[in-house]
Amino acid sequence: MNILTIDYNDKDLAKKFTDSLHESGFAVIKNNPISQKLINQVYNDWESFFKSNKKLDYIFDYDKQDGYFPFQSESAKGNSEKDLKEFYHIYPNWGRIPKFANTDTITLYEMLLNLGNEFLKYIDKNCPESIRNNFSEPLYNMSNNSGQNLMRIIHYPPIDNNIKSKNVRAAAHTDINLITILVSGSQPGLQVKNKKGEWIDVKSEKGQLIINIGDMLQECSNGYYPSTEHQVTNPKIKNNVSRFSLPLFMHPRDDVILSKKYTAASYLLERLKELGLK
Question: Domains in the chain: how many in total?
Answer without folding.
Answer: 1
